[in-house]
Design a protein that fits this description.
Helices cover about 15% and strands about 15% of the residues. It is of the alpha+beta class. It has a domain of about 70 residues.
């Protein structure tokens, strides 16, 4: 049966703490052009040669949350108030809410899975018994 002294246990706990601290350090972000971030916050997935289209649809801001109720304004689609790259581009012109209140839909423009036109000339013969 192995025996541990208090100093060896202390060293082991420091090593574990150091590994935990290293794993909590922020990792460098990958190039966002090649990655897609799902709206639920799960792990990013690498995409290959696909065009990503992000649309913001209906507003989900609960205007009655402070009173304990639920009421949305009915804004059906996000319309930017300003030009891209400005702060006003993140505000909706229709409902004046931030873009983050609008439902985010990610669409991938995917190429066809396979070329269904076959150039194969092989034929199969059916044997008669």
């Amino acid at each position: 049966m192995p025996t541990f002294s208090s100093s060896s246990i202390h060293l082991l706990s420091n090593l574990g703490r150091r590994k935990a601290e290293e794993s909590m350090r922020p990792q460098p972000e990958p190039n966002n052009a090649n990655y897609i971030s799902p709206p639920n916050g799960s792990t990013r997935k690498k995409i290959k040669d696909h065009k990503v289209v992000i649309k913001y649809t209906e507003c989900r801001k609960n205007h009655a949350a402070s009173m304990g109720g639920y009421a949305v304004d009915g804004c059906r689609e996000f319309m930017a108030s300003g030009d891209d790259g400005t702060a006003s581009a993140l505000l909706c012109a229709a409902c004046n809410c931030h873009r983050s209140f609008h439902k985010r839909e990610v669409e991938l423009d995917q190429p066809p899975l396979c070329d269904c036109s076959s150039t194969s000339t092989s034929t199969s013969e059916v044997e008669n018994y």
